[in-house]
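Researcher: Please translate sequence to structure tokens.
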Amino acid sequence: MGHIAAIGEPLRILGLASAGVLLSPAESPDAARAAWRNLPQDVDLVLLTPTAADALDPEAVDGQEPLVAVMPP
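Model: Translation complete:
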């Protein structure tokens, strides 16, 4: 079974660590794109903050693996 990762502003994703989610804090669009590129191969689900989702190319995250979910604003 794979893992869950979260990419986005640290204050938005910090609480997910207690559930075992791999955190990739990203304060800027460039940091969000770098975090996406550096996801481990065994990640099956990525949770994105809205800001991180806006930074990523929609084609990179739409309909591809890993599964992506955008957190509510």
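Researcher: Any highlights?
Model: The domain at 3-70 is CATH 3.40.50.10580 (Rossmann fold).
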